[in-house]
């Protein structure tokens, strides 16, 4: 959408940004550098209205994911491949005349295009170029600090009101930071765009209007887990996808632009799922088993890796694989947590068990590696401890972070890009923050606690390139008859907070640090 001069400017910005050596981000896009010249990609470029589509369709154009070629596995779907939707307006390349649905999609796309032109005209003014570059560099080189309480800037409530007790089950930013994905008890995956104001004028923006989902994707049964494709970039629609696992259903690969299923991996009722570091493999957790799929080959073919290596030792207690995390240091290591309260460390290419650690009071439900891969954080259900394991000395505990978890649901936590701060939600609606550099004590003192929701905060996620924090809340509630009689207002007895909220964090720029 930008003219030749604009594209030339973006190229210069990208080249300059690559020379910056102390960026605290893992993935830098032109949109992040040029101050949202193309922030509409992955957002306003969506050609579809909110959908609830569960119709299975094959990969589009043999989906050209990096280093992945799916054409060999889709020879039987040539007709569907030839009828690929154009990312510009959703029209079929194999059709000579547009249909009524295509015209409606084009009209929606034209509305988005007008918004994009307005954004470009505001951002590409010559007099604002230097200031925009300076502001963007400062954001890209930020270091969050929790010296002040985070400020809520926007959120979403109405999207989750149509279903009784429609509590959320976490939230996850896309790798490029253009959108955020949520899961809720109505078996829906919802996609929300990051508001444009947070790209272009982050420092001065205050309270923004409520966000609305741009896509809705419904699974047939309870959703167990979901994860983004690790190399996702809104500039390449083929990479805009994510996986989800649900009860009695195969693993689904969803298109984040259309809301449709691209393909399925025939592995049913897996409790956890995750891509490997480059996205070429998908790990699925089962009872005493991890199944590994080739991302480029949907279907039934997979590699089965038993987690029980020796029935005569402690490894026999390694049960249902409830969560999986991949080491970011490209070492081929991945960790598997289980409901048997243990965490196993495995290595590619065969998935050999390297270490097995135990220490939780409840089944392990979430795992996160630090950016350098030296630390592994684990948390469990009805377990107040987040344990920090030293990967250099398997089994050694560096820290224990105390939170409040009085539920069996999965309670997420996250680490900022520098590895300094760990954040987690609590059962009482608060968010706790720990500074891992502040103390060497085993029981790490809490740095800050603030009220974020009126209900259990089960989801939390740092934005990959902006000082933003997302939180999600809600839980299943059971109201007893005696409790209802003691409450004058029935609404008070059933009060809950099922919402997604975005928080602006305080930060230091490169010059200040």
Automatic annotation (TrEMBL):
GO terms for cellular component: Cajal body. PROSITE patterns: WD_REPEATS_2. One of its GO terms (biological process) is Cajal body organization. It comes from the Eukaryota. Gene3D superfamilies: YVTN repeat-like/Quinoprotein amine dehydrogenase (2.130.10.10). Residues 76-98 have a biased composition (Polar residues). One of its GO terms (molecular function) is RNA binding. Residues 76-100 are annotated as: Disordered. InterPro entries: SWT21/TCAB1_mRNA_Telomere, WD40/YVTN_repeat-like_dom_sf, WD40_repeat_dom_sf, WD40_rpt. Belongs to the TCAB1 family. PANTHER family: TELOMERASE CAJAL BODY PROTEIN 1. This is WD repeat-containing protein 79. It comes from Paramuricea clavata. The lineage of its organism: Eukaryota, Metazoa, Cnidaria, Anthozoa, Octocorallia.
């Amino acid at each position: 959408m930008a003219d030749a001069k604009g594209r030339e400017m973006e190229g210069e910005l990208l080249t300059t940004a690559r020379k910056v050596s102390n960026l605290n981000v893992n993935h830098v896009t032109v949109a992040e550098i040029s101050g949202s010249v193309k922030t509409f990609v992955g957002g306003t470029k969506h050609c579809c209205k909110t959908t609830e589509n569960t119709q299975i369709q094959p990969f589009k154009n043999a989906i050209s994911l990096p280093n992945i070629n799916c054409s060999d596995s889709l020879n039987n779907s040539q007709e569907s491949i030839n009828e690929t939707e154009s990312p510009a307006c959703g029209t079929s390349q194999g059709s000579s005349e547009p249909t009524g649905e295509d015209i409606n999609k084009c009209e929606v796309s034209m509305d988005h295009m007008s918004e994009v032109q307005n954004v470009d005209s505001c951002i590409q003014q010559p007099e604002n170029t230097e200031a925009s570059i300076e502001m963007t560099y400062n954001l890209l080189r930020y270091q969050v600090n929790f010296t002040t309480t985070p400020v809520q800037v926007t959120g979403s409530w109405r999207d989750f009101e149509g279903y009784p007790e429609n509590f959320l089950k976490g939230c996850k930013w896309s790798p490029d930071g253009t959108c955020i994905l949520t899961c809720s008890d109505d078996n829906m995956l919802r996609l929300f765009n990051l508001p444009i104001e947070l790209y272009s004028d982050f420092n001065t923006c205050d309270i923004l209007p409520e966000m609305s989902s741009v896509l809705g994707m419904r699974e047939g049964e309870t959703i167990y887990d979901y994860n983004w494709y690790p190399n996702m970039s809104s500039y390449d629609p083929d990479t805009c996808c994510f996986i989800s696992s649900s009860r009695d259903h195969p693993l689904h690969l969803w298109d984040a632009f259309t809301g449709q299923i691209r393909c399925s991996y025939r592995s049913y009722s897996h409790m956890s799922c995750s891509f490997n570091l480059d996205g070429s493999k998908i790990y699925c957790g089962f009872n005493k088993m991890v199944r590994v799929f080739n991302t480029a080959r949907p279907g039934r073919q997979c590699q089965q890796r038993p987690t029980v290596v020796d029935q005569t030792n402690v490894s026999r207690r390694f049960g249902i694989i409830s969560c999986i995390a991949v080491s970011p240091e490209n070492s081929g290591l991945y960790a598997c947590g289980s409901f048997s309260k243990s965490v196993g460390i495995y290595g590619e290419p065969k998935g050999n068990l390297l270490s097995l650690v135990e220490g939780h009071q409840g089944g392990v439900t979430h795992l996160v590696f630090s950016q350098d891969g030296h630390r592994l954080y684990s948390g469990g259900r009805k377990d107040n401890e987040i344990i920090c394991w030293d990967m250099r000395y398997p089994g050694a505990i560096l820290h224990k972070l105390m939170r409040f978890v009085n539920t069996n649901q999965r309670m997420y936590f996250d680490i900022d890009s520098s590895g300094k701060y760990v954040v987690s939600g609590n059962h009482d609606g608060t968010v706790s923050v720990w500074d891992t550099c502040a103390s060497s004590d085993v029981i790490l003192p809490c740095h800050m606690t603030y009220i974020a929701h009126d209900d259990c905060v089960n989801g939390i996620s740092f934005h990959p390139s902006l000082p933003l924090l997302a939180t999600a809340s809600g839980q299943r509630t059971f109201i007893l008859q005696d409790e209802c009689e003691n409450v004058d207002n029935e609404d008070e007895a059933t009060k809950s907070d099922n919402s997604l909220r975005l928080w602006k964090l305080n930060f230091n720029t490169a010059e200040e640090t």
